[in-house]
# Entry
Amino acid sequence: MKLNRRAFIGTGVAAAAVLQAPMVWSQGRARVVVIGGGAGGATVARYLAKDSQGQIDVTLVEPTRHYYTCFFSNLYIGGFRDIASIGHSYGKLAAEYGINVVHDWAVGVDRDAKTVTLAGGAVLPYDRLVLSPGIDFVDGSVPGWDVSVQHKMPHAYKAGSQSELLKAQIEAMPEGGRFAMVAPPNPFRCPPGPYERISMVAHLLTQVNPTAKILLVDPKEQFSKQALFEEGWQKHYGGMIERIGPDFGGDKVEVRADTMEVVIDGNAEKVDVCNVIPGQKAGRICEIAGVTEGNWAPVTGHTMQSRIDGNVYVLGDATNQGDMPKSGYSANSQAKVAAMAIRGELLGSSVFPAKFSNTCWSLIAPDDGVKVGAAYEATDEKIASVSSFISQTGEDAALRQQTYEESLGWYAGITSDMFG
Amino acid sequence: MISKVAAAIFLAGTCALAGAAQAELLGDAKRGEALFRDCSSCHQVGPDAENRIGPHLNGIFGRKAGSVGDDYRYSKGLARMGADGLVWSFDTLDAYIENPKALVSDTRMAYRGMKDEKDRADLLAYLRDFSASPANIPESQPTARAREVELSPETLAIVGDRAYGEYLSSECLTCHQRSGSNEGIPGIVGWPAEDFVIAMHAYKRQIRPHPVMQMMAGRLSDEEIAALAAYFEGLE
# Structure
């Protein structure tokens, strides 16, 4: 018997109706293929394997054998973590959870045949597919920049070798030199990320090159935790950081990698390091699978199912879901809802109303941590914020230190929730 | 001093501590009583003291580590230290309170440590009163042990659905580690259900200040809180 038992109706309400009648498997176990082994993909694979007691065959497709978390990669740049401490392998997911971990690139999805093709040529059949590929960059987002010059002007917005390159470039800057960042337009991965990075670069420079300057070129009027960052920059790094917003041409930027120039509204500025964080879109496999509209993959918040194909779930940064920021925490939270919904569909297990949450911690300076967070629920239209909080300006040092220490606890927590 | 005491425990085993006396400060028990408020969200001492999130502390001086009774589950490390012969004395308690993890690395005691030597001496002077002459522990007063939040008997009587709690717990486990680790974020594994329920309602009513926990607890129903409490209580 094959699985096309129902047509996908396209709203989350449909999922609830199907739960009373779990699928019957005449041959073998239900198969779920997960593409992408980050905060969304690793978590959904682990929860599916853990909670289905062997009744679901889980395959995780992730090209890298060693995964570096984008969260906390700024702390590496600032000198608060070493690179090894943000690297994780998939050994436990394979050995302790029985997940079939395949280190390869997914290059094709046939949604009619329900198969995934890998770069190595293998073809994986699935009953449900989860796409959690993170981001790719929008072509031409910053004129003069593409992946062919990322060794001269790193993005460092996918962690690992790019993070190491950016840090090495900063450490090699001439005395009194200039670091530039081209910040991305909305929406993008980790809304406070570029500004935490500015803080960490400033901290590193105060240690190794205190007369250096930082130029932040930003196409956005406003940014996440702006009051908190600006207060902290004034307090810790007074006079080092200059931000050029859209009112002064921050939205009209091109770069020249050969001459290390940033051109802002026609005026060329020579810099020593240039961190270009381009505009972003869903990881390319979403487009290949045909589940994107515009740059992102629309999903229903009730289950994280694609609004285009109910057999496909999409998680994390790649989605267009509503109010949640693109963050590792969000992806981890969405993965648990998806795992519950998939088990409900395939095994008939209990399904409860979707709840989501997110908190983003940022480090401004040593022991000066801040956070922002919200709780979310699914409506038929979107994932909607129901309550939120943010650190306040002027908080005392003890609270900021506690917030930083809490972020270390969160890192340990979420990475063990992802990788076992 | 931590390292000295720890070394004594690790190297010499059972009987070393009796002889390894440090100069004992004479603390101010009255001041220690005020300092104990920091401890009282987990530990009880005095009349009717019971094991809660942490073990009760009556008779702690001279008690073997990890030995309060069968109804209290210790971390593996603390149980092992007890088996190896650690006995709570002024010196060992002083080292433990100064930095719990330095003495027992996997302790579930989510306490950062009391750095001031005088504070520790005062606190221990207070605790000693409940060890040295337990007969003198005053009679229980009806209002002695007020709960952090007053909950109706109906709320306290809700029997949590562990399966639902398991699903809901996935949201907690993004930060609170399944291992019970206390690094940066307190462990919540193995808490008595009633303490869990009271703590969550204290966040929900914004009596406890932490904004993330206020947000998380704020949208949980009484049944959901009970479900989570039942689930975490049952975890080893």
